Amino acid sequence: MTVEGAGETSEGVLLDEPTTADLRAKVTEAWREFASSLASLLPTLPPGAHVDLTLDPTASGTGTAVYSVSLRVLADGVVEALAVGNAALPAEFRMNRATVADMVALGWSPPGVLAGSGDSFGLRSSQDKATQLATVVSRTLRDVYGAPHPAFLVYLVHDEEDEPIDASPLGTARHEPSIDDLDLEGLDEEGALEAALANVSEDVVPLEERVRTVVATMSKTTVDQLQVDADGDVGIRAGSAMVFVRVRDNPPLVDVFSPILTEVEPTEQLYVKLSELTNRMPIGRLYCAQDTVWASIPVFGRNFQAIHLMLAVQVMTGLADELDDRLHGEFGGKRFFGEGDKPVPSKERSSDEHRPGMYL
Known about the structure:
Elements: H1 3-15, H2 23-41, E1 50-55, H3 57-60, E2 68-73, E3 78-83, H4 97-106, E4 121-126, H5 130-144, E5 153-158, E6 174-175, H6 192-200, H7 207-218, E7 227-228, E8 234-238, E9 241-248, E10 253-261, H8 268-280, E11 285-289, E12 292-300, H9 306-331
Parallel strand pairs: 5-6
Antiparallel strand pairs: 1-2, 1-5, 2-3, 3-4, 7-8, 8-9, 9-10, 10-12, 11-12
């Protein structure tokens, strides 16, 4: 994958269609807004501040591959950036020589060259060069890592103790929600919240175990009785929908996601509808990948908070069960537990159904 070619790979087929000709300009403007917001944020951060940017893996269609860039403000206005390298990627998603060359051309040092970079690509800049650094980060996420739109990015701004730092929004990228800004009424019914927090508070407990403890507590069952598939995803039935909880290690991330509809025709009307619905959601997003409509709420595993996961699961189970019925009635397709649902006939499906998910 090359820097110039990656953008065409991720969106070119769709954006060349006459009915969506204006989408290229919209996506380009969204990336400019993201880069501008990041450039404005960096000079305001104190030493020790971090900005973690992660491509939502459920939206990227890259399986277990998680692409991320982390920026850290050092003393004297120095900014150190680290970008995921091949050592942290599954074999089938590792970068080839051309892609590594593209990273170097953008200004990244190969893994291990910059002191302390370890297995990641490294880059050092300064707060007074925030515009150039933000451009490099934006192009890395979009052109090399293949993020189709900033809305697929999840970010967190925090200090060295992992305490969140108030920051202006980074364009349409999604911020890890603050529990102070959301309605948590009902989450602590029958002491479930206290029980979950008590069981997952120790840092020595693996993230996967902490996550399963929370899900089991919410489901009023035991960890051993959870429904876990071959991929290690915990399944939760929500009416006619199915919600999955997946734990990723590098970077630590918890995906709460649901295949709302399958075998649905990806039309412009569908993309517009998903965009409108996403804009109304307090957290998470909706998107279409090939012929499947997905809902996703990522939760950071760093400084894991049980209440954040409980909120994500509560929101997703209600959202999935409501939206699969609503969208099925308007766009057809098949619900996860929709008996008698009829898929879109193959001859009526888009000829470009191999394309990656596109957010409008």
